Amino acid sequence: MMKAWRSSVRWAAPVAVFCAVLCGSARAQTEGTGEGIARGPWRISGTVVSSRGGGTLARVRVTIADVKNRRIAESMITADDGRFEFRVPAGKYSLEGAKRGFIAAAYDRHEQFSTAIVTGADFDTETLVLRLAPNAVLTGKVLDEFGEPVRNAQVMVYRENHYQGVSRIVGYRGAMTDDEGRYEAAELDEGTYFVSASGSPWYAVHPSTTGEGATGSPPQVDASLDVAYPITYYGDATEANDATPIPVRGGDRLEADIHLNPVPALHLVVHTREGEVQPPVLQKPGFDDLDQERVPVADIRNNAAGEYELTGVPAGRYTLLTRNANGQATEMSEVNLTGGGELDASLGNPMSTIQARVRLESGQKLPSHLQIGLRNSRGKSDVAQVDDKGEVKLNDISPGEYDVEVFSPSQPQAYAVTRIGLESGIVSGHALNVPPGASLSISLVLVGSSVTVEGFAKRAGKGTSGAMIVLVPKNPEVNHDRFRRDQSDLDGSFRLPNVIPGQYTVIAIEDGWDLDWSEPAVLARYVEHGQTIEVGARSAAPMHLTDAVPVQAK
Questions:
Q1: Which of 205, 274, 424, 492 is the most buried (most CB within 10 A)?
Q2: What does the H/E/C string look like for 200-243?
């Protein structure tokens, strides 16, 4: 059996805890972490339960931390009854739990957000329920047309997410099958997943009809041997958009077998542009036709200058990518290949290269690890790292309209493009038109985030916890990088950091986490009842909303 895949996120390591026995039950043990929390008059207490079945969980490490200073923290291990209790001063605290075999989680977690616990006479902080989902496992076999295992098949697991404000299915993990044709994805969080597999029939023969040693006519090979397996998704579909989704809940152990069925292998002769010296690459449209997956082929031969023969190609929809000696790529628009023959890749669109020099509007030094991305209307982004000289290069850009975005994953601030310098002049905003085959040199002027917006989400005058808070920019369809989100805390409070100056509407949606929250059509009904604000220039002090944001039903 192959080793289970492991999540790249690791939570607190388990500790050995010895619990005294009192009246027949284990007593919870409390530990200080970081700087420790001073003992106070308020209690944060409750029970840790499994999200599957609701049973109480013993030996869970429960940690609270001051949200203003995470180093001030305290943790304890729950007893057999799953109970935890902390005595703390007045304040706002995060509450998290971790146990082997479960997904570590904060209180009322949704994606990367959670609800902080606020102490006070008006809040029930003594009957809290902290839910942990048990790890889920997705496993199965890749089988051939005879029901036999396919060894060393490439398996990809995809997951649906809403991180960009629209439902997208993205690559999650990958591995090879073992000698039994089995794969396994362990420690999965709850969500919706998809699986694909690709491999080659062990018995396949793909004769070449041209090139060195060929006779110019097809060799006498049984047609049933000249076959290939197309990329196949769970549900035995050969197109990503026809794949069967796999809903995964905590504690599930699901079997998802994939059956590979052979199709006649195509023999393609590809003619490339003069000077294109690298072998052509076949790509298959992925989910929502956004991402391209490279298609394995049995063999690629360079028969003559600018001519390549590809064998062992399964029939299907593809794009073709070629590249010249200078690295410039040409992309041939999607073709539906149902038979062999010749393709003239010179008819494709030359892809573009963009070289950008980046600077801050303030004139300050650029922070490290900035990334520049181009986002098209379908939500696909091409991203590259800004170097120490403030320069960045993006290769293989298809012609079209893009929004230029800035990513700063390791910085406390966020940034946005305010001006683009082109040879034809300065363009306000961050929209960029990329023509085919261009080599663009541009300059980007960035503005850093400067304001934190704080407020309360309420229903009928009472603070509401767990609501999704969305800061919606004016003209959201072209200002995707200016969205901000949060989850309301126990008193209904929220905090939206790193807001770029501009006009916004703040909305609060109950249980809105599966909405396409950046889509203008989805937002329209909520924005109508939201609170419009104007965020001005840089300010060290937070901007407090004087009126509460009404919580709207999903």
A1: 492
A2: CCCCCCCCCCCCCCCCCCCCCCCHHHCEECCCEECCCECCHHHC
DSSP state of 524: H
Q: What are the tokens at 537?
A: 């220039």
Q: How far is CA 483 from the centre of its chain?
A: 17
Which residues have CB under 8 Å from 247's CB, separation 6+? Answer: 192
Say whether pLDDT at 495 is over 90: yes
**Dihedral sign for Cα atoms in the order 141, 144, 148, 149:** negative
Judge whether residue 302 has pLDDT over 50.
yes
The pLDDT > 90 percentage for the chain reads 58
Query: Among candidates 346, 454, 440, 458, which has minimal Cα distance to 393?
Result: 440
- Greater confidence, 404 or 224? 404
- Kindly report the pTM of this predicted structure: 0.82
State the sign of the Cα–Cα–Cα–Cα dihedral 61, 62, 65, 67: positive
Average pLDDT over residues 515-532: 94
Q: What is the per-residue DSSP string for 423-456?
A: TTEEEESSEEEE-TT-EEEEEEEEEE--EEEEEE
Domains and CATH numbers, the chain: 21-134 (2.60.40.1120), 137-349 (2.60.40.1120), 352-448 (2.60.40.10), 451-552 (2.60.40.1120)
Q: How many CA atoms lie within 13 A of 487 on its CB side?
A: 19
Contact 444, 393 (CB under 8 A): no
**Whole-angstrom Cα distance, residue 63 to residue 124?**
18
Which helix H or strand E contains 534, and what residues bound it? strand 531-535
Question: Rounded to whole angstroms, how far apart are CA atoms 491 and 361?
Answer: 38
